[in-house]
């Protein structure tokens, strides 16, 4: 598998980005300001990663997704490790990531990779998303923010 920077986002990339974030307008807005990478596995598009510089010395993983057929094979973990190395090599001090309070699998994965919880943004998904999001049989309301120093 190779991970490489995307020069120009295509429809295939948006299909992946929308797996992690269902709001196309929000996605379009933040990818313009992000550096994006793709994971290519067996010549096909397997995963995506969008990194957005936020505060000084802080990089946020604003989107990470693996194509459904490739999930559960370690690609997501490799993309996270790539993000941490990229941040360190680019002189960032902290990497942040936010996810739904109902995203139990993602919360496991991020903590497995060393992220620690920093705060809860209550009602984030009610405020920013027009469509209700249901995950693990729960209505998603709150955003959990995690970070790691690199
Ligand atoms: N549910 C349960 N466990 C999970 C999940 C999940 N959704 N995702 C990962 N894991 C676990 C795996 O079982 C594995 O466990 P192990 O170490 O005990 O074997 C470990 O985490 C590593 O998993 P990977 O195979 O590396 O993860 P994968 O390649 O499937 O990628 C990802 C994880 C990116 C979350 C993928 O499932 C996905 O694209 N999901 C849909 C989009 C999404 O939710 N993206 C994140 C939104 S938040 C954001 O983008 C900032
Ligand atoms: N992991 C995953 N799912 C769980 C867990 C768990 N540990 N506990 C409950 N659930 C889910 C069940 O699958 C069920 O889901 P469903 O509504 O989709 O069917 C739902 O939650 C309700 O489950 P119950 O059967 O009512 O839960 P149970 O009788 O097992 O009691 C409890 C839950 C008290 C957490 C029990 O598992 C337990 O005693 N665990 C060990 C002690 C513990 O962790 N206590 C809480 C510590 S925090 C505190 O005490 C303040």
UniProtKB/TrEMBL annotation:
Keyword Iron-sulfur: no
A Pfam family recorded for this sequence: Acetyltransf_1
Sequence ranges assigned to domain N-acetyltransferase in this UniProt record: 1-136
Gene Ontology MF terms: N-acetyltransferase activity
Keywords, ordered alphabetically: Transferase
Transferase in keyword set: yes
InterPro entries registered for this protein in UniProt: Acyl_CoA_acyltransferase, GNAT_dom, NAT_camello-type, Streptothricin_AcTrfase
PANTHER family: GNAT FAMILY N-ACETYLTRANSFERASE, LD18367P
Name recorded for this polypeptide: GNAT family acetyltransferase
Gene source species: Enterococcus rotai
Lineage, uppermost ranks: Bacteria, Bacillati, Bacillota, Bacilli, Lactobacillales
């Amino acid at each position: 598998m190779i991970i490489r920077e995307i020069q120009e986002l295509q429809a295939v990339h948006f299909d992946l980005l929308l797996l992690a974030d269902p709001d196309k307008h929000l996605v379009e807005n933040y990818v313009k300001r992000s550096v994006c990478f793709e994971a290519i596995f067996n010549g096909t598009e397997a995963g995506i990663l969008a990194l957005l510089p936020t505060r000084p010395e802080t990089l946020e993983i604003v989107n990470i997704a693996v194509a459904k057929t490739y999930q559960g094979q370690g690609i997501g973990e490799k993309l996270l490790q790539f993000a941490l190395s990229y941040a360190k090599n680019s002189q960032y001090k902290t990497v942040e990531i936010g996810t739904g309070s109902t995203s139990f699998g993602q919360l496991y994965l991020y903590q497995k990779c060393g992220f620690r919880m920093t705060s809860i943004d209550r009602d984030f998904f009610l405020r920013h998303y027009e469509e209700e999001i249901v995950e693990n049989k729960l209505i998603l309301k709150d955003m959990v923010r995690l970070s790691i120093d690199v």
